[in-house]
Amino acid sequence: NAGVTQTPKFRILKIGQSMTLQCTQDMNHNYMYWYRQDPGMGLKLIYYSVGAGITDKGEVPNGYNVSRSTTEDFPLRLELAAPSQTSVYFCASSYSTGGITEAFFGQGTRLTVV
Amino acid sequence: AQSVTQLGSHVSVSEGALVLLRCNYSSSVPPYLFWYVQYPNQGLQLLLKYTSAATLVKGINGFEAEFKKSETSFHLTKPSAHMRDAAEYFCAVSEVNRDDKIIFGKGTRLHILP
């Protein structure tokens, strides 16, 4: 029972570098989300997708890009890493037919930009 | 747009005492409401959810929450706290039949005093 799988678990980036955070789910969920979690700020929605080929901005999309070419995968791309992107990133998925089930979360990716 | 306010970023209760974590929401349409728990260095796990059925919702680990439309609240309670309940708790909202993105509050860290 894999659920939502995120890789890597930890990463240190230098300012200006790029990377992709991987997320895959095996529950055939149509919705997928990326959140970032900063101390005392809760979870902020970066991007979400309602199905393959469809993505939309959340609350804090600047500095990130996403794609959803398949139902299973929803990678998050950081093009030019900045210290402000130091955070814990969570991917989640849910199923919706006009009212969602709960979101299932991955274990998170802890990213440090130095 | 929907939003969630959690009153108190930190709450301390004695072991065996009542736990009350407060959540108020804002939504222009009927909401779905959720409480999640996050243990240290882990992802988020669903405690309970309200999806327009019974207003008193029972969840895992002895937690429950009551949906009060007139007060726009969805407070989380547990009659008797255990040491293992020490964690961070997040309230979240989604708007029914809208784009279904899930918006989280800033979280409340629950401390259990021996």
Largest sheet of chain A: 7 strands, mixed
The class by helix and strand makeup of chain B works out as mainly beta
**Can you give the helix content of chain A as a percent range?**
under 10%
Number of helices of chain B: 0
Write down the Rg of chain A. 13 Å
Poorly predicted runs of 5 or more residues of chain B: none
- Share of helix among residues of chain B? under 10%
* H/I helix tally of chain A: 0
The N- to C-terminal Cα distance of chain A equals: 35 Å
Describe this structure in words.
The complex is a heterodimer of chains A (114) and B (114). With 114 residues, chain A is mainly β. Chain A has strands spanning 4-7, 10-13, 19-25, 31-38, 42-51, 54-57, 64-66, 76-78, 87-94, 104-105, 109-113. In chain A, the strands form 2 sheets. In chain A, strands 2, 4, 5, 6, 9, 10 and 11 form a 7-stranded mixed sheet that branches. In chain A, strands 1-3-8-7 form a 4-stranded antiparallel sheet, with no helix packed on it. In chain A, 37% of the residues are buried. In chain B, the strands form 2 sheets. In chain B, strands 2, 4, 5, 9, 10 and 11 form a 6-stranded mixed sheet that branches. A 5-stranded antiparallel sheet of chain B has the order 1-3-8-7-6, with no helix packed on it. The model of chain B has no long low-confidence stretch (mean pLDDT 91). The A-B interface holds A 4, 31, 33, 35, 40-45, 48, 50, 56, 58-59, 90, 92, 94, 96, 98-100, 102-108 and B 6, 9, 32, 34, 42-46, 49, 51, 90, 92, 94, 96-97, 99-107.
Secondary-structure topology with pairs:
The complex is a heterodimer of chains A (114) and B (114).
Chain A: E1 4-7, E2 10-13, E3 19-25, E4 31-38, E5 42-51, E6 54-57, E7 64-66, E8 76-78, E9 87-94, E10 104-105, E11 109-113
Parallel strand pairs in A: 2-11
Antiparallel strand pairs in A: 1-3, 3-8, 4-5, 4-9, 5-6, 7-8, 9-10, 9-11
Chain B: E1 3-7, E2 10-14, E3 19-26, E4 31-38, E5 44-50, E6 56-58, E7 64-68, E8 73-78, E9 87-95, E10 103-104, E11 108-113
Parallel strand pairs in B: 2-11
Antiparallel strand pairs in B: 1-3, 3-8, 4-5, 4-9, 6-7, 7-8, 9-10, 9-11
